[in-house]
Write a structure and sequence with these properties.
Strand content: 25-35%
Mean pLDDT: 88
Largest sheet: 7 strands, mixed
Distance between the termini: 65 Å
Strand order of the largest sheet: 6-5-8-3-2-1-9
Order of helices and strands: HEEHEEEEEEHEH
Number of strands: 9
Shape: globular
Number of helices: 4
Length: about 150
């Protein structure tokens, strides 16, 4: 009887472990420097399907000059939502040449779909209002190694 109880406790702990791990923000991703106008962005790079799926979920804060850039293999209409995302964000949908195709403000903890206006491979998420405060609009160009690599 005790062995069964101990086995059930171990099983419950093993099942709870992954659930707890999924509730943690990912803050250890590779980083890249991006630029737009006079401004520099320290961006985490989400490039695997799992990294893109988690994105900025569970983050309680993010420095103003920091963001996350999502990198996809092929240009496509990219759509994002804010499930389990605690911060209000703005998504910049970005073409291969670094041009911002469109900007969309997204509210925390919602499942509304926010999509690119044309096929893109990159989506940069920043704290909501960052682009507006810097007067960065649709058509502005981002610079950085990611966009240089896309031209090859």
């Amino acid at each position: 009887m005790f062995q069964r109880f101990a086995a059930l406790l171990l099983l419950a702990a093993a099942l709870a472990g992954p659930a707890q791990a999924q509730q943690q923000p990912q803050t250890d991703l590779q980083r890249t420097k991006l630029s737009v106008g006079l401004y520099t962005i320290d961006a985490q790079v989400a490039q695997t399907p799992r990294q893109r799926e988690i994105g900025l979920m569970f983050r309680k804060e993010m420095p103003q000059a920091e963001g996350m850039i999502f990198v996809f293999d092929q240009p496509a209409t990219q759509c994002f939502w804010m499930r389990n995302t605690l911060l209000p964000l703005t998504a910049a949908f970005v073409a291969d040449d670094g041009r911002i195709v469109n900007l969309v403000d997204m509210q925390p903890m919602t499942e509304n779909s926010h999509c690119s206006e044309e096929p893109v491979r990159f989506v940069l998420e920043m704290n909501q209002g960052w682009f507006a405060k810097k007067n960065i609009k649709k058509g502005a160009k981002l610079g950085g190694e990611l966009f240089a690599a896309s031209k090859r």
